[in-house]
Amino acid sequence: MVDINTVSHELAEALKGQGADYIEAHLSEGETSHITYRGRQLEAIGRSTATGGNVRALVKGGWGFVSFNDLSELGKKVALAVKQARSVGKEESQLAPVEPAVETVPSTIGEDPTNVSLAEKKQLLDEYNDIICRYPKIQTSMINYSDSQRKTIFLNSAGSHIEQERRDVALRLSAVATSNGEVQQAGISVGGLNDFGAVRGLHSRAEQLARQAVDLLSAPHVKGGEYTVVLDPILAGVFTHEAFGHLSEADFVYENEQLRQIMTLGKTFGEPNLNIVDTATLPGLRGSYKYDDEGVLAAKTYLIREGKLVGRLHSRETAAKMKEAPTGNARAISYRFPPIVRMTNTYIEPRSTSFEDMISEIKEGVYAKNWYGGVTSMEMFTFSAGEAYMIRDGKVAELLRPVVLTGNVFKTLKNIDAIGNDLDMNQGGGCGKGGQSPLPCSNGSPHIRIRNCLVGGR
Amino acid sequence: MEEILSRASKVAEEAEVFTVSSVETPVEFETNRLKHIQTKQSSTIALRIVKDGRIGYATTTRVDDIESLIANAAATAEFGTAARFTLPSLTSYPNIKVFDPDVEKETTEQMAELGQTMIDSLIKHTPELTCEAMVTRIIADVSIINSRGGQASYKQSAFSAFIEGQLIRDTDMLFVGEHWSSCHPLSEPGGIIEEVLRQLEWAQEQASVPTKSLPVIFTPHGVASAFAGPMVAAFSGKTVLDGASPIGNKLGKMVFDKRLSLRDDPTIDYRPGSGLCDDEAVPSEATPLITEGTVSNFYYDLQTAALAKTRSTGNGHRSQGGQPSPSPSAFVVTPGDTTFDDMVHDIKEGLVVEQLMGATQGNILGGDFSGNVLLGYKVEGGQIVGRVKDTMVAGNIYELLKQVAAIGSDTRWVGSFLSTPSIYCPAVSVASK
After folding, report:
1. If residue B193 lies in a helix (H) or strand (E), which one and from where to where?
2. Does residue A216 sit in helix, strand or coil?
3. CB A241 within 8 A of CB A441
4. Fold topology of B2-200
5. CB contact, 8 Å: A45 with chain B?
6. Model pTM?
7. Cβ–Cβ of B363/A63 closer than 8 Å?
8. Assembly ipTM
9. What are the two backbone dihedrals, phi and then psi, of residue B240, each rounded to the nearest 5 degrees?
10. pLDDT for B322
11. CATH class of the domain comprising A4-216
């Protein structure tokens, strides 16, 4: 069986002398295990192995890309990528300069998921599932567990040769309650990088989840309209990712004059207490790595500092075209896709307000927690809370049916008038963009308060 | 394939080998210009076995490592769920056409030209528009063999064209777009251009709607973004088996308006959702789900059908290399007889919803949807007067579709999955700021 280290030397030779402005290649081998439950039944268990690679070429500003499982005839694949790039390119290639790197990055591991036996994984999931399923009025459960290990080798025509390895663990637990034809559900997502420990010890959260799904059956709908809304760290993290994070991805902006004007550095986006950061350099978070998929070192990037736009996320091409420094944010979900500008771990930095102080002045408002998901179309965002309560006279009051929050990003950021002291990172999500989903990312925030937020309801 | 099957059969009672090899060629435009041409070759082998009565499953991309594939399948079988199904032993299948050799002949130059024509036509109409576009061709070879002698294989072509235009004025952003797909190549993009130009025309002025219950017309795109998600969940045999579908116990009962009929249909020639069989080699058939308002079927794969003591409807599909599970092939809503214009003329004050954002984030299982109107228009005195902003609609599909005002005659494909006319609901909750 051919292994990718052997192939990488052959491929490195093939990248030379092709007459392209730049060529890079990725090789990858990995294994994924997944276990799913529906109700009492284990529904599916399986294991996949995948090996493959790609070649990406740049000629006169045009890109060609070839991906493959078959590791033979690599020279032809390189030639095809170059030919495609040549048929596209009509301008000048621009890439921010990056020093070539030759490195084998050792993976730092907590509890290695590949060392935990299938039997032990199943035992743990059985325990969570049992807690959910035996809760009164719970109709069914849904559990999705997966772990993967992947080794990648990055090569480019400037001589880089970077070998990296990562192990991802992700778990989603959902409880579904029914009564009189009504169906309600509650769920949590957790995950970790290189650490199976991230999915251990969730027994009490599984029970909470079941209780919450049942409680939702008798909860009222919120009356649609504008409210003062307090978001918990998880939902505020999603808000940061969806509402603002995507706007700071330079590939949306770099060739769009109008968007460039909206996203001019130095512009005020929020109150002076607002700092937003993206960084792949924090150990153990799912969005972390040493080098991105263009061989650029990861960095800590302030996107908003003291309310002002101060940075954005770049690939080598967007950095060059905007005359800014590369940030190491070019990522691909697998060898089947070219790297594009993505977030890593994105969060609002904590301030000093306590949760009690934050809600104490609210006469009627909404406390929204946890998340189902969120999407954005640049200016408008919408995200949904997995759990929500009315706030009445400064206190958390009755449970509500799940709520959807929506608004204009620019107005909403300015309407954040309090930032808490309790930063927490949400490791459960996966981000989708350009057909590449789910990419491991994390996001976080302390509790935040938003004035005049539109809440959908009946 | 035969070798894998025979080797797997030595360690297991039953075995099934599924292979798919494809070449996908996307031609991509960014900011009105050709930017990227890609060629993606991929091949996967999936092995499902039944060993000691339990299902084991593994996939690989490596033809040179059959040993690990079989070992992985055997290792998972130890913990796998009990197999209740019998693999089909058929070798002949309905003749459903899903391959057009002309797709293979489309050159990347022709595809690039197609994309540029779409973009140029839109820019000619609205010069400040920024367009992204993608023209893609896919050729796939699918084969399935199993230890019961069942065997199916076919070649499929798919061709798709996608365009999205973005118009920014100050911080106001408008998104318009269309997605077209077929097993035939697209000879000329006139229909796509016409559709996007219509959206641009209707969105030219801005208008606002009050926060209250209003009549709402969901266009085919609107139906896709508000109703499709909850329908897919509710009619899944698996959701029903779990007792989590609100219509699970309503078989044969009138739950929807009697003008509403819906079927899952993988038998239409040259549609990307069609095929002669599903991914378990069960022959394709059209499955009526709603017949004149009555819940008439759910859709099943082999295992779920066996557990529910019914038969597979040929809906065992695999997504991203996973095991077969019930999933729809293509939903087709039967058109009604009211024209779109007649629906609009009927409304004093209301809304046309073209695109909802985030509609399916809520309690889909319960039928709830709630989303921001990404693209929608206000109707005033029977006329479309402009585009609305900062507006949300919310509702429950079981309440809204129990009694509709009209089903449109304007049926069309939205992407490759849904064919539907517009649906006009008399009262939907609308919130705006």
Report:
1. helix B190-202
2. helix
3. yes
4. PmbA/TldD fold (3.30.2290)
5. yes
6. 0.91
7. no
8. 0.90
9. -65, -45
10. 87
11. alpha beta
